[in-house]
Write a structure and sequence with these properties.
The complex is a heterodimer.
Chain A: H1 3-15, H2 22-41, H3 46-56, H4 59-65, H5 78-101, E1 106-108, E2 112-114, H6 119-146, H7 173-193, H8 212-238, H9 242-260, H10 276-307
Antiparallel strand pairs in A: 1-2
Chain B: H1 3-24, E1 29-30, H2 31-40, H3 47-60, E2 63-68, E3 75-80, H4 82-111
Antiparallel strand pairs in B: 1-3, 2-3
Classes of the chains: A mainly alpha, B alpha+beta.
Chain lengths: 309, 112
């Protein structure tokens, strides 16, 4: 009984995933190591065995050599794995928002089981959904690879990539300057007039569309969203990645979510013939749609970045 | 060695070693003995490369094996099959053809 050799073989066996003949492989390795130890060191001792084992290779590498050409998922599906996951997750993401907003559950077995849940739980759920979607796509690609099904998996022709590897244009210094200037202009208006929602353009006696409390709150939130957009644009000079856009749009969506669910109810100025409440609601919905679209585009681009070698 | 050259060597050896084993196993042999024999003629091969290769060749039906349990410890002996001989001859013909193409190109370069 040679303890180190048995331990070594057990380790190889742990990694060895062959359909049949595992015992025979281990027996052959054992026979080889024992013979080599005896012939090269004169006797089979723990010391001589350790020396031979050390040169034979790490158990995981040894096992891997027996499994060459047996990929779990074919390398040709690498880009499918990431892009399909991104698309599935995008649908999952939108349905989750719908479910949370309408306080309902959405079930479409086996793709989606979205329970009725509050916003904080939904944030946690979205993370789990990403893992689930990745696993589901991986499972399908695993089956296609293992069964050697002769199928041509569809490849969605989304326009990401026309302007570079991830499809993101290079940021321009002039546009960054404009964004920063506009941000400071908004900030100046807020500090001076306590609003950015002007009803008239008379700066000597400005009137806000909203009551003072909600005017300040919503102005701050929108300026925060714009600041996030500007900072993300600046970060792209250092790291022009779809991840930056994804984080940017997600943070903006969260800010819009806070605006939509804010306990501060806006009181709109009464204007005959104009429904400012409706316009205000549409204004927020418009930006929510923009942020969601931004997230979807970013997800596709992130998937593209990840699938590039 | 340059890592790129090392990678090329590994790729070239992959096919070469298969043919070499098919030639070597015209006479029955076992892993450790084959490694030592190849070492003597100047070709070093790692055991964790040879054994998986033998398994693949056996799976293809190009070689066959049997355990010899008569000695101090059991040994798995291999020998080439008829199918393996046919493959070996085809591989050697391919190899000769490739060598000829290379020589022709080299000569053409020299004359140019």
């Amino acid at each position: 009984m040679h303890e180190s050799l048995e331990k070594y073989l057990k380790e190889i066996s742990h990694y060895l995933a062959v359909k049949q003949g595992a015992d025979e492989i281990l027996a052959e390795i054992k026979s080889h190591i024992l013979e080599k130890a005896e012939r090269e060191s004169g006797a089979v001792t723990e010391e001589s065995l350790n020396k031979i084992i050390g040169s034979y290779g790490r158990p995981r590498d040894v096992a891997a050599k027996y499994m060459e050409g047996q990929e779990i998922i074919s390398p040709t599906f690498k880009k499918h794995l990431f892009r399909y996951t991104a698309l599935l997750y995008a649908v999952h993401f939108i349905l989750t928002i719908v479910a949370v907003y309408f306080r309902t559950s959405i079930i479409a077995m086996p793709l989606f089981i979205i329970p009725k849940m509050p916003v904080l739980v939904a944030l946690n759920y979205l993370l789990m959904a990403l893992i689930y979607d990745f696993g589901l796509v991986a499972l399908v690609l695993y089956l296609v690879t293992q069964k050697k099904w002769d199928v041509r998996l569809p490849w969605p022709g989304i326009s990401a990539g026309r302007r570079g590897e991830s499809g993101l244009a290079r940021p321009k210094i002039a546009l960054l300057g404009v964004r920063i200037a506009f941000f400071f202009l908004l900030l100046f208006l807020l500090v001076k007039y306590h609003t950015i929602f002007f009803y008239n353009v008379n700066f000597h006696a400005p009137e806000s569309m909203l009551n003072p409390a909600s005017s300040v709150f919503f102005s701050i939130m929108l300026i925060a969203a714009y600041a996030c957009h500007t900072i993300a644009y600046w970060v792209r000079f250092l790291f022009n990645s779809a991840w930056v856009r994804l984080v940017e749009n997600t943070v903006i969506l969260l800010i819009l979510w806070v605006i939509w669910n804010s306990p501060i109810r806006p009181e709109y100025k009464s204007v005959p013939g104009v429904d400012l409440r409706l316009i205000g609601g549409l204004f927020v919905v418009f930006f929510i749609i923009l942020a969601v679209m931004g997230i979807l585009r970013s997800l596709v681009r992130v998937a593209r970045e990840m699938s590039l070698p | 060695m340059d890592p790129e050259l090392s990678f090329l060597e590994t790729e070239m050896n992959r096919g070469f070693l298969q043919v070499l084993v098919l030639v070597l196993l015209e006479r029955k042999g076992y892993g450790y003995g084959m490694i030592k024999h190849l070492e003597k003629i100047g070709y070093a091969v790692e055991e964790n490369t040879l054994y998986p290769l033998l398994r693949r060749l056996e799976k293809n039906g190009w070689i066959k094996s049997e355990w010899d349990v008569s000695g101090d410890r059991p040994k798995k002996f291999y020998a080439v099959t008829d199918r393996g001989r046919t493959v070996r001859e085809q591989a050697l013909a391919m190899w000769a053809e490739q060598a000829e193409i290379l020589n022709t190109m080299k000569e053409a370069d020299r004359d140019a």
